[in-house]
Design goal:
The protein has 241 residues and is α/β, with parallel strands linked by helices. It has two domains: 31-83; 98-116 and 123-238, Nucleotidyltransferase, domain 5. It contains seven helices and five strands, in the order H-H-H-H-E-H-E-E-H-E-H-E. The protein is elongated.
């Protein structure tokens, strides 16, 4: 802490600017890592070298290399890669593509330990429910149902109900893209036959996880949105169109 004589000396020497806050960084840092080492560490780290391997190259301590890598903001490997370009696409015609996905939700028999603070109280054997969602790629209109399972017959019924609902809105369904769930279209499945009866082509996504991500917006009914949960029989009230 600066004493009063020092404040006074600063004021007399520098005027009103003397008592102002200033950096506590020393004017000289003789033990600071040399510039050539810092440049070498950055170059090797951008070549995806680990910090122990980098430390062996110039003969530095691993802790020194770790601190320098952290200062450069290169601690995580994903920082070394260029940012991925996000490709947005959208179908032009309503009904050209419907995206279907499912979400497994645990049934709620009552409030949990985060509210009543008693971890010894358990709700065993309550079971699961499955939220089936269908979103039109062009208009973002969605149809959702909370169903008891995701078997083939249930999935076929959901597609039939979803196609009928979209047709009632004046949208003719051309294609249906589903997730990789076992109940959704494989050759000869009930869901595929159901889509064929509705004159729609049913395809199954075979790319990386997340091709039906636009349906995720339908996966947050009121009771799954972070508020105090109510018993499961109220969950479906906010999920029908």
């Amino acid at each position: 802490m600066t004493s009063r004589p020092q404040w006074l000396a600063r004021y007399r020497a520098e005027g009103a600017a003397g008592p102002q806050d200033r950096s506590s960084r020393p004017r000289r840092s003789p033990k600071r890592l040399r510039l050539r080492y810092r440049r070498q560490i950055e170059l090797l780290r951008r070549s995806r070298w680990s910090t122990p391997r980098i430390a062996r190259e110039p003969g530095l301590a691993v802790s020194t290399v770790v601190l320098e890598v952290k200062r450069l903001g290169l601690s995580r490997l994903e920082r070394l890669d260029p940012p991925r370009r996000v490709i947005h696409y959208e179908r032009q015609r309503p009904g050209e593509l419907l995206q279907v996905d499912t979400k497994k939700l645990g049934r709620i028999g009552g409030v949990g330990h985060r509210i009543h603070r008693d971890r010894s109280r358990r709700s065993r054997g309550v079971g699961w429910e499955y939220l089936h969602a269908c979103v039109d790629d062009a208009t973002r209109m969605s149809y959702t149902e909370v169903l008891s399972d995701e078997r083939g017959e249930t999935c076929a019924g959901f597609i039939r109900w979803a196609v009928a609902w979209f047709q009632a809105q004046g949208i003719r369904v051309e294609r249906v893209m589903t997730n990789n769930g076992a109940g959704y279209p494989v050759p000869g499945s009930s869901a595929r036959r159901c889509a064929s009866r509705a004159s729609a082509t049913c395809v199954r996504a075979r790319t990386r996880p997340g091709p039906t991500g636009r349906s995720n917006a339908s996966f947050r009914p009121p009771c799954a949105s972070g508020r105090t949960p109510s018993p499961t029989h109220h969950r479906g009230c906010g999920s029908r169109p």
